[in-house]
Amino acid sequence: MTETAPSRADTAPRGVRMPRDERRAQLLAAATDVFVTNGYHATVMDDIAERAGVSKPVLYQHFPGKLELYLALLERHTDELIRRVRQAIEETEDNGQRVRNAVEVYFDFVDSDDEAFRLVLESDVRHQPPAQAVVERAYTACVQAIAQAVAADAGLDADRAWLVAVGVVGISADSARYWLTRRHEFPKEEAVALTASLAWKGLAGFPLHSPKAL
Q1: DSSP letters along 51-85, please?
Q2: Which of 63, 158, 174, 183 is deepest in the core (most CB within 10 A)?
Q3: Is residue 208 included in any domain, yes or no?
Q4: Which residues contact 46 (CB under 8 A, 6 or more apart)?
Q5: Is residue 194 part of a domain?
């Protein structure tokens, strides 16, 4: 039998004191594992405490309830997605490369070992108001980053640039999730290139309005 690698949520022995920030990170990693595996509604705090190797009182010292813990996870993973999309847009002045970079961010996001993308894009609780607000904030920030580049370089007004950016985000997220179900049939690099090509062929039809970056 093949030995599996330990999860990020593997923990120190019970009773070992950890710095607060380190303990919080450990609990979030354990919670990601459990929520991804079981879903929000089927998870109880006991599951997460057991996975983290801590007592329930220790877990409750950091998070007052399951929803607060889940929201903390959403904030953590959506903040990282926003950061990566913004970086993808800002690190180059080449619009074709910007599109490819943005597409690649979503493919990397769904291809992460912890499968945290499922909490953001597929969760059984993401349409409840508190979680929905976090997800929508991230979606808006990612669309905005792309829309600003489109408006600056293609000469589109804000509404039309936003519509184009919505399309780029949508095709990136949906294509990435589809590729994940077929990942053994063709490599991620090829999937990114195909998706970026489709998105860029549409954007390339707009005339360059300004040579400057954002």
Answers
A1: HHT--HHHHHHH-SSHHHHHHHHHHHHHHHHHHHH
A2: 63
A3: no
A4: 56
A5: yes
